Amino acid sequence: MRVRQTALTTDLSGRTRDLSGRTRIPAHARTRDADLVRSRNAGTREQTGGLSDGGPADLLAVCHTHGSGSGRELTADVGRTPTLHSKFDSAEAADREVAHGAGAGRTP
Questions:
Q1: Under 8 Å between Cβ of 70 and 99
Q2: What average pLDDT does the segment 92-103 reach?
Q3: Taking Cα atoms as reference points, which of 73, 69, 37 lies closest to residue 52?
Q4: Which residues contact 60 (CB under 8 A, 6 or more apart)?
Q5: Are 77 and 45 in contact (CB under 8 A)?
Q6: How far is Cα 108 from Cα 85, in angstroms, rounded to an integer?
């Protein structure tokens, strides 16, 4: 078996990239996340700030690595803007807000 070594860098968003600029998938964000994306059976995905087991995860990159299972390539552009809501909070912001108001006898 041949092993290929690559130099990796981490950008400010926490994503790990190799020298060619391709996003590297964290080991903990492999098959389970690809199965999640495959189970939705969609042709497009719009996602930012995804987390998997507390670490950043790029679900599109995971799905491209493991195959979408639907026979078509996923793209990041969904081709529309949601009209019933504005921007969602990031996973980190949601965690902070829940932790701030959580606890016995605390009401927001």
A1: no
A2: 81
A3: 37
A4: 37, 45, 47, 74, 76
A5: no
A6: 22
3-state helix, strand, coil in the chain (%, to 5): 30, 15, 55
Q: Name the residue type at position 84.
A: L
Neighbour-count burial of 33, counting CB atoms closer than 10 A to its CB (0-12 exposed, 13-18 middle, 19+ buried): buried
Buried b (16+ CB within 10 A) or exposed e, 39-66: eeeeeebeeeebebeeebbbbbbbbbbb
Q: Domain limits of the chain?
A: 8-76+88-100
CA 98 to chain centre: 20
Residue predicted with more confidence, 83 or 9: 83
Bridge-based pairing state of the strands 23-24 and 51-52: unpaired
Confidence (pLDDT) at 44? 46
Cut 0.85: pTM above it: no
